[in-house]
Hints:
Blueprint: E1 12-16, H1 17-33, E2 37-41, H2 49-57, E3 62-65, H3 68-76, E4 82-85, H4 94-100, E5 103-106, H5 109-122, E6 126-131, H6 146-155, E7 159-165, H7 178-195, E8 201-203, H8 210-214, E9 224-227, H9 229-232, E10 235-236, E11 241-242, E12 251-264, E13 287-293, E14 305-307, E15 313-317, E16 322-325, E17 338-343, H10 346-354, E18 359-363
Parallel strand pairs: 1-18, 2-3, 2-9, 3-4, 4-5, 5-6, 6-7, 7-8
Antiparallel strand pairs: 1-12, 10-11, 12-13, 12-17, 13-16, 14-17, 15-16
Helix pairs in contact: 1-2, 4-5, 6-7
The structure holds pyridoxal-5'-phosphate.
Amino acid sequence: MIADRQKPHCPRVTIDLTKLKANATRIIRACRRHGIEVTGVAKGVASHPAVVSALVEAGIASLGDSRLANLKRIRTLDLGVETVLLRLPQPSMAAAVVELADVSLNSEAVTLQALDRAAAAAGKVHGVILMVDVGDLREGAMPGDVAELARVAEQLPRIMVRGVGTNLACYGGVKPDRTHMTLLLEARDRVADVLGYEPSLVSGGNSANWLLMESGRMPVGINHLRLGEAILLGTEATEGRLISGMAVDIFRLDAEVIEVKIKPTVPQGEIGKDSFGDTPTFADRGERLRAIVAVGRQDVVPTGLVPTLPGVEIIGASSDHMILDVHAAKKAPQVGEILSFTVTGYSALLALFTSTYAAKTSHG
Ligand SMILES: *Cc1c(COP(=O)(O)O)cnc(C)c1O
């Protein structure tokens, strides 16, 4: 299996768009059954054009990303969808935010004021979701302070409060539960008191909210989620569970073998720190056949990969080399051969789509 000259060079990520669309369709339907609308989040793939186009084909009408550069990529495709900036805006970038995002998530009064000025200058009205910190301790106003934030927003003529939102399971790893969602609903009520109307969106969180929803325990009133990992990888992070009925092999990494040799399993000499500052340990398994593929930690997080060929095991990686134990493979890989890996980890996906060294291609 020598590299096909028609295909982009390796390392190369291949996206199965048919499977991606099926995942998105299933997620949208499941959410709809629970009265929940979805913003599709493609930041794990830097809002790659083929991915976001497939999401829109599957029925996603709102796309979110945390980076303005990625929202710009989405806007360039002219897909006719709403764009949502997921990371709190940098005040210095207010003009770009109102240009590239229809909605942004916010927790700071000064930022709302900067967005209002930028929206006025652009002749626009900018939508905001007021973020409430219900326990994960990343972004959001504390529940007792959200009314004050709403009061600021209400005074700003170019700011339209579209809803309230929260984000869990990111910094604190807190699993979303009914108590958190109830705090969010209380925040919505406080905001409604200030505005004199009920904001339409109550955005309960990210893919970590999946189990709560699917088990039917999501409180009534939570009507929006921002979902990336669930769609892209078919998993939810809090318990690392696969979501039933979802494809978990949408992204495949191909890498070329550059060395195949029998070597001992324990390095020779005193073990100091490796190239990433960790002190490795080794179990002696005798002499084993190993291969090196031309990809490394500069492109990918090796723990988020699963070799597709039985008998292949990833045993380590430095910046540019990934080392495999191929002793148990039925047929020994050859130098120049391409080995494939399913991308199962979010960090691995993020790194691959950020790496300018890894080519991206899609089919289906
Ligand atoms: C990344 C992000 C999401 C999506 O997270 P997934 O775990 O990929 O679903 C949602 N909301 C915010 C604020 C984010 O930063």
